[in-house]
Amino acid sequence: MRTLHPSPFDLFDRLEQQLQTAERVPAAEIHETEDSYTIALELPGVDRASIDVKATDRSLIISAERRGQAPATPTAAAATPEAGHGEAPTAEGRRRAPLLSEFRYGTWSRSFRFPGGIQRDALEAHYRDGLLTVTAPKAQSVTTVSVKVAD
Length: 151
Hints:
alpha+beta, four-stranded antiparallel sheet
């Protein structure tokens, strides 16, 4: 017999599917001192070369890419088209698809806007042990513009 109302458990199944496909961005922590802002991002498994930090007068844009694992051998990529995406190695050295994978691969971008200006030329970024730390010194001068109202 077919029911007109879905089961409440169907909602949980749909929620789980949505969570699995949702885009995840790295966790961030922002600190402010008298003279700078410091942003720390968790980026485990991200290659330093794929991290890009850009700045405007009042914001930072940080983007990166987490790539899948490299194939076990040069011939493994040719032997299995899905090689290089987090598969477990077989006895022959080839990779196979995992039984369960909760790792997220791909690119992402995140922006942070600050209440005051920052010195774009004095930014410092350090990446160590999966943690990206960006220090953005505060701008020392604030410009004010006066506008004459015309008739």
